[in-house]
Amino acid sequence: MKTGLGGVIVYVPDAVEAAAFYERAFGFERKFVSDGNDYCEMQGDVPLGFVREESLQKLLPEFVKNRPGARPAGFEILVTSKDVDAAFARAVQAGATPVAEPHDMPWGQRVSYVRDLNGVLVEICSPWSAP
């Protein structure tokens, strides 16, 4: 049986606020907002969704919450851009916290890192694919 990646969900204090940040910082477009604003989904080949933490707490009372002052969780959201420097600058101007300025990697890719308003690690890099 073949499976595929259906999307990415990030649990946040405020789903609508997180979606608005990704619109400002990365140019994403909102696709859907649920009644009650508990869930926001962004447009994309792999949907990115934001869900209010209270929804997860009903099923999983204890989990590590994404927070700006805490260490980032062991995952990242990857955003690609042909102009990494401009995308990095836009994200920082929108309120992202810079982690690593744009720089070139030995394999030719340009990468940078920021943290979003909830402390989630976001890599901004030039397009890539596995060899």
Structural features:
131 residues; alpha/beta; 2,3-Dihydroxybiphenyl 1,2-Dioxygenase, domain 1; four-stranded mixed beta sheet; 3 helices; globular
What does this structure look like?
This protein has 131 residues and is an alpha/beta fold. It has a single domain, classed as 2,3-Dihydroxybiphenyl 1,2-Dioxygenase, domain 1. The chain has helices spanning 15-26, 53-59, 84-93, and strands spanning 8-12, 30-33, 39-42, 48-52, 77-80, 97-104, 110-115, 121-125. A 4-stranded mixed sheet has the order 1-4-3-2. β6 and β7 form a beta hairpin. It is globular, with a radius of gyration of 15 Å. The model has no long low-confidence stretch (mean pLDDT 94).
What is the topological layout?
Layout: E1 8-12, H1 15-26, E2 30-33, E3 39-42, E4 48-52, H2 53-59, E5 77-80, H3 84-93, E6 97-104, E7 110-115, E8 121-125
Parallel strand pairs: 1-4, 5-8
Antiparallel strand pairs: 2-3, 3-4, 6-7, 7-8
Number of strands: 8
Put simply, the count of helices is: 3
Structural class: alpha/beta
From the N-terminal CA to the C-terminal CA, the straight-line distance is: 24 Å
- Percent in strands: 25-35%
Q: From the alpha-carbon coordinates, what is the Rg to the nearest angstrom? A: 15 Å
Helix content: 10-25%
Major β-sheet strand ordering = 1-4-3-2
Domain VOC: 4-127
Pfam family, one: Glyoxalase
Protein name: Lyase
Organism: Sorangium cellulosum
